[in-house]
Amino acid sequence: MSLHADVQSVLANYQHDDAQQRELAEGYRRFVATDPGTVWRSSRVGHITASSLVVDESDGRVLLTLHPKVGRWLQLGGHLEPEDTTLLEAALREVREESGIQQGRIRMLPIRLDRHDVPCGRDDDGRVLASVHWDVQFLVVVPEAVDLVISDESDDLAWFSRADLPDVDASVAALIRDADGALGELGELGGSGDRDWVTFG
C-alpha cells in the first residue's frame, strides 16, 4: 500500500464526536482524493502533515516543543517523508526526531484534525511561500522519566502539567482536551481500549 493509500485509509476510519471535526474530515478526504501528491510538501496548495501529542504515563504531563518558525508551543510533528510507509510511522518518526523518545504507545487512529495556513519554504528569490498544513494528530503515551533529546528543529522542549501550560493556541488546547478522552479509553494500559494502541520501541 502506498503512503497516499494509507492516508486515505486512516481518514476513512477517522471518527470524532464533534460535528465540526466530522465535517473537517470530509474536507480532508476530498482534498487527498484530488491528487496523490497531497501527501508531500511539494504540493504548494497544501499537504498532509503528521503530529503527536506526547503524554507522560505517570502524571499526565504533556510534551511540547517551542517551534522556531511560529514562536509558539506546539505538539511534535512535521512533513511526511519518502521513507514513511504509513501515516502512523510518520508521526512516530517525528516524535523520535524531535524528542529522542524511543519507546511508548501510540493510538492507531488519530484523535483530531487541524487545518491551518503556514509559511512553508521559500521560492528561488528567498520569498516565504504560503501553504496549508492538513495536520493529522495522534496521541503517544510514554513511560515515566523518559530522557529527552532536543533537536535543531526546536527552540525548546519541555513537559507541562495541565495546571502549568504555557500560552498555547486554541488548536493545541483542543488537542489536549481530546487526548484526555482518548486516555480514558486506554485506562490502565491494559483495559478494553488497549487493542486500539500500538507499542513501539
Please count the helical segments.
4
CATH superfamily: Nucleoside Triphosphate Pyrophosphohydrolase
Enter the CATH topology name. Answer: Nucleoside Triphosphate Pyrophosphohydrolase
Second CATH tier, the architecture: Alpha-Beta Complex
- Span between termini: 23 Å
Fraction of residues in β-strands: 25-35%
Structural class: alpha+beta
Described by the principal axes of the CA atoms, the overall outline is globular
Please summarize the sheet with the most strands.
Answer: 9 strands, mixed
Give a written overview of the molecule.
With 201 residues, this protein is of the alpha+beta class. It has one domain (3-200): Alpha-Beta Complex (Nucleoside Triphosphate Pyrophosphohydrolase). The protein is 28% helix and 30% strand. The chain has helices at residues 3-13, 19-34, 87-99, 170-186; strands at 47-56, 62-66, 73-74, 76-79, 104-107, 112-122, 128-142, 156-160, 197-200. Helix 1 packs antiparallel against helix 2 (19-34). The longest helix is centred in the C-terminal third of the chain and has 17 residues, at 170-186. The model is unreliable at 188-192 (pLDDT under 50).
Structural features:
4 helices, 201 residues, alpha+beta, 30% strand, Nucleoside Triphosphate Pyrophosphohydrolase
List strands and helices in order, with pairings.
Elements: H1 3-13, H2 19-34, E1 47-56, E2 62-66, E3 73-74, E4 76-79, H3 87-99, E5 104-107, E6 112-122, E7 128-142, E8 156-160, H4 170-186, E9 197-200
Parallel strand pairs: 1-7
Antiparallel strand pairs: 1-2, 1-4, 2-3, 2-8, 5-7, 5-9, 6-7
Helix pairs in contact: 1-2
